[in-house]
Amino acid sequence: MNSSEFNDLAEFMKVNKDKVHGFLSNSKRGTAFYYSTEAVDDFLKINGLQYILRGHEVMPLGYKYHMNGKVMTIFSSSRYCGETNEAACVFVDKEEIRVVKFETHGRLVE
């Protein structure tokens, strides 16, 4: 993967999700896009991937599945900016994706 392809992929991972057809420019962020389930399916097929794991968006439970389970947003910081969100992390191997959730008071929950 060359640097241009890497930059394109990095920008794709930062996008917000919304109900659009294909891709739609996000004027609030300038460099990000809204994208549809069809766009995710096409991206995964073209790149030989099964899932997209993304971050950089607070999730109340620490993680959330989107786009028919093909996109997961993971957020690893609990009580971000004084909020009440939980935190989570992901373990990935050839057989499974495992989410580990951390409660804000420090106990580990799977």
Write the layout of secondary structure elements.
Blueprint: H1 3-13, E1 23-25, E2 33-35, H2 37-47, E3 52-54, E4 63-66, E5 71-74, E6 87-92, E7 97-102, E8 108-109
Parallel strand pairs: 3-5
Antiparallel strand pairs: 1-2, 4-5, 6-7, 7-8
GO molecular function: protein serine/threonine phosphatase activity
Protein name: Calcineurin-like protein phosphoesterase
Descriptive overview:
The structure is a single chain. By secondary structure, the protein is of the alpha+beta class. The longest helix has 11 residues, at 3-13. The protein folds into 2 domains: 1-49, no CATH class; 50-105, no CATH class. The chain has helices at 3-13, 37-47; strands at 23-25, 33-35, 52-54, 63-66, 71-74, 87-92, 97-102, 108-109. Strands 3-5-4 form a 3-stranded mixed sheet, with no helix packed on it. The chain has a 3-stranded antiparallel sheet with strand order 6-7-8, with no helix packed on it. The radius of gyration is 15 Å and the shape is flat.
Question: Key features?
Answer:
110 residues; alpha+beta; 8 strands; 20% helix; Ser/Thr-sp_prot-phosphatase; protein serine/threonine phosphatase activity; Calcineurin-like protein phosphoesterase; Metallo-depent_PP-like
β-strand percent reads 25-35%
Regarding quaternary structure, how should these chains be classified?
A: single chain
Distance between the termini: 35 Å
Number of helices: 2
Radius of gyration from the alpha-carbon trace, in angstroms = 15 Å
Helix content: 10-25%
Mean pLDDT: 76
Strand order of the largest sheet: 3-5-4
What is the total tally of β strands?
8
Low-confidence stretches: 15-19
Shape: flat
- What structural category do the secondary elements indicate? alpha+beta
Listing every helix as H and every strand as E from the N terminus to the C terminus, the arrangement reads: HEEHEEEEEE
Number of domains: 2
Biggest sheet layout: 3 strands, mixed
